[in-house]
Amino acid sequence: MHTLSKLFLAALPFTTLVGAHHHDRSKSRHRHPSVRRQSNNRTYSVQDFYQGEDFFNDWDFFTGSDPTGGNVAYQSQSDAQSKGLAYVDDCDNSTVLAVDSTSTVPAGGNRDSVRITSQKSYNGGLFVIDASSMPVGCSTWPSFWTVGPNWPLAGEIDIIEGVNDQVTNQMTLHSGTNQTCNIEKTTGNSTFVGNVLGSSCYSTETADAGCGIEDTDTSSFGYGFNNADGGVFALLWDNFVGMSMWHFARADIPADLTAQKPTPSTWGAPAGFWSAQSCDISANFFDHQMVIDTTLCGNWAGGTAYSQSGCPGTCTDMIANATNYVDAKWVINYVAVFQ
Ligand SMILES: *[C@@H]1O[C@H](CO)[C@@H](O)[C@H](O)[C@H]1NC(C)=O
Ligand SMILES: *[C@@H]1O[C@H](CO)[C@@H](O)[C@H](O)[C@H]1NC(C)=O
Ligand SMILES: *[C@@H]1O[C@H](CO)[C@@H](O)[C@H](O)[C@H]1NC(C)=O
Ligand SMILES: *[C@@H]1O[C@H](CO)[C@@H](O)[C@H](O)[C@H]1NC(C)=O
Ligand SMILES: *[C@@H]1O[C@H](CO)[C@@H](O)[C@H](O)[C@H]1NC(C)=O
């Protein structure tokens, strides 16, 4: 029951990318695999490396009202930068995306935050984020995800997501084109480590739970992630094999990834895996842009999940108190896409 309501609320229902680029879908669709390989053991090379002072040149700031109903006012690039909510730290080249932790906001009001979208879109590859810290605390709902145009038609891939005092990461696929996209194995000897929360990826605006897998490692989310000095999340999107996701705490990051020559087939079982044998990947996921955001309360963090968490009072009471948001920030060492 807990899992079901959490799942139902977990989805990002109206992920309309206001101001986002729209792409011609004909390029990428219907490249249905004719040969299915068992595994992809190749070594990947850097395609795009987002880091340091150049980071914000390649991402757009979303300024619409939060499609997930959160109590946030998403800031433009100039406002976010002048308010100190988006900056590159000169000391270590990290990119910081913060929630306002100084202003008083009326209960039920919107607190300033940031949501950014990569200008470039992708149809596969190895997507990596290295962060030393993620937003934590009651009412927060941070996410690193990818999404295609016309949600849910081109799908959504949630790589990092969770709310409030959640202790492990939740990874979710939302397919919108083909109802036969499913997680193949659900128990025991599965080819991934995490726990399946729901096996049907098909999502609509009114039934948008998707197929989620919960990591089992408490360093994969929230305070546990930050206490491990953060780490790395990787999505390997292979149209022939499927979607694989890993999390590595900082001490366990594979040397080949640090060397920027990753061979994911050597990394061991992923935390989550969605097989191309049970989901037509290229039909359901295409032209994805990456998104990094922190929303507050809203459809998931503020709903039943808030009252079921160990958090005090109500979610909107939390919003009013600026000191709750001192640690509600992403500190990102880099985002990279390898091909
Ligand atoms: C990679 O996979 C291919 C096809 O399965 C196989 O022929 C090849 O030997 C593998 N290479 C390595 C280094 O494992
Ligand atoms: C910081 O990021 C820039 C890209 O904006 C890169 O050229 C530079 O090498 C990075 N510096 C360090 C110390 O990593
Ligand atoms: C959905 O995927 C299945 C399996 O790949 C395929 O047989 C079917 O034609 C697809 N349906 C649509 C509407 O694309
Ligand atoms: C997984 O377990 C099932 C029975 O629980 C068995 O039929 C199947 O062969 C197993 N698969 C693998 C790859 O071990
Ligand atoms: C604001 O939040 C801080 C930290 O959670 C707490 O110590 C403080 O009592 C709160 N203040 C009010 C007025 O709620």
From TrEMBL:
SUPFAM superfamilies: Concanavalin A-like lectins/glucanases (SSF49899). Residues 21-41 are annotated as: Disordered. The keyword Nucleus does not apply. The lineage of its organism: Eukaryota, Fungi, Dikarya, Basidiomycota, Agaricomycotina. Residues 21-35 have a biased composition (Basic residues). One of its GO terms (molecular function) is hydrolase activity, hydrolyzing O-glycosyl compounds. PANTHER family: GLYCOSIDASE C21B10.07-RELATED, GLYCOSYL HYDROLASE-RELATED. It comes from Rhizopogon vinicolor AM-OR11-026. This is Glycoside hydrolase family 16 protein.
